[in-house]
Amino acid sequence: MIILLALSVLLITYILSQIQKPHNYPPGPAFIPVIGHFYKIKSLSKALGGQHHAFSHLANIFNTNIVGLKFGNDLTVIVLSYPIIKRVLTEEVFEGRPDNFFMRLRSMGTRKGITGTDGELWNTQRNFVVKHLRNLGLGKQVMSTHIKNEVGNLLKILPNSGTQIRKLLAPSIINIFWDITSGSRIKGNDPRIEKLIELLNARSKAFDMSGGILNIFPWLRFVAPKRCGYDLIWRMNRELNALFMEIIEEHYKSYAADKNDDLIYIYIEQIRNDQPTFSNDQLAMVLLDLFIAGSQTTSTSLDFAFMMMILRPDIQQKVQSSLDNAFDRNEPIEYCERHRVPYVEAVLLEVLRFFLITPIIGPRRALHETELGGYRIPKNTTILISIASIHKDTSYWKDPEIFKPERFMSEDGKLVPHDNLIPFGLGRRRCLGEVLARNCLFTFFSEVIRNYTITLQPGAEEPSMIPQPGIVLSPKPYLSVFIKRY
């Protein structure tokens, strides 16, 4: 009887500890023992069409811009307004990344790379990569030359029969990132590029930013590895790691002390000099971070942009007129000359706002106890950032559900940037590939639209405005026809 009573007391104590919220924690649904809000968010996400919709739904219910949740034992806060999001993105206390099973799984059980790390490792690696990417031409004319070459190759193969443009865009964008990191481009028939595209796409659809049930109960990988998603994620991460290791090994074979014409050679030099935090495994994760940060989101943004040109031929015609008036027919379109076509820039800004390519960006971790919006945020709380909430917020945008490039234009036809449009984030953790991504987005879009009119393949189903869910949202497949203008 005494043992039974003691067990009952322990059970009650445990349950109370699981359901009791920290003092002055942000408002949200009642805590649920053991599993937390996992199934609630999962069911809401399925019903509403995405995790970001589930978070906005809860914010409306509790009349708050900061929602307090719990996944398993992990306190998790969702932020949904520009002032709060800006604080999280720019203040040092929120620069941490969660250190949990799911975050370590992406780097084969360790903490490596740039995106998933923090502290001295993150600081050293990020500064090194940013410095040498600039030295290799990021943001300079040499990078624009690489982009123009890939655009030229794409223009040669655009068919006048139905095609899924994403299948042509992805290799072109990846080749630009491949060039700057490994010093060469991959031929279109190289199986490595097809494999990389396949793995990056599958990875972006395999999980959400909360880490799912596997992050709450890592032991499920031993009893139900396929059902909990572990087998899929582990296989994808292993294959991606093997692909980058193969490239690194090729560089070792051709390495020489005076070779510094790509990022991998420069990084290998640091490894050979026994620099702390530099290793082959770390390099593989850095390469993965760079490809995820730029290539996939850029090709997806272009896919959405071309889809909208099919749905809105009036906007396509205005873009073509703008380009025709600003550039001679045989004059290459340069990113540095984008000020000559403010309407084209406005269209692309509206694509980034309207389509919510990454509705929830990388999670943060509170490095110590702090305050946010008047609420207490305990140390190591995970913060999920809903960019979608501000890009569709009626407080900042008139008619946010309407695609309207003119919102970024003044009455006299000048471009008017908007502080509340932050698709690449803010602060020191701002997207590493932003400059390259913006250049690719502008140059590819402008050259294709100047040279071709895009229409829907006759008899094909009209493109859907409802995207495919995932960490990176993408259009559902559609068939387009490219008709040469001259």
From TrEMBL:
InterPro entries listed in its UniProt record: Cyt_P450, Cyt_P450_CS, Cyt_P450_E_grp-I, Cyt_P450_sf, Cytochrome_P450_fam2
Cited Gene3D superfamilies: Cytochrome P450
Subcellular location(s) of the protein: Endoplasmic reticulum membrane; Microsome membrane
UniProt GO cellular component terms: endoplasmic reticulum membrane
Record membrane topology: Peripheral membrane protein
Cofactor(s), names only, from the UniProt record: heme
Signal sequence range: 1-17
GO molecular function ontology, one term from the record: monooxygenase activity
Matching SUPFAM superfamilies: Cytochrome P450
Protein keywords: Endoplasmic reticulum, Heme, Iron, Membrane, Metal-binding, Microsome, Monooxygenase, Oxidoreductase, Signal
Pfam families according to UniProt: p450
PROSITE patterns for this protein: CYTOCHROME_P450
Binding residues for heme: 431
Function (record text): May be involved in the metabolism of insect hormones and in the breakdown of synthetic insecticides.
Family of this protein: Belongs to the cytochrome P450 family.
Protein name: Cytochrome P450
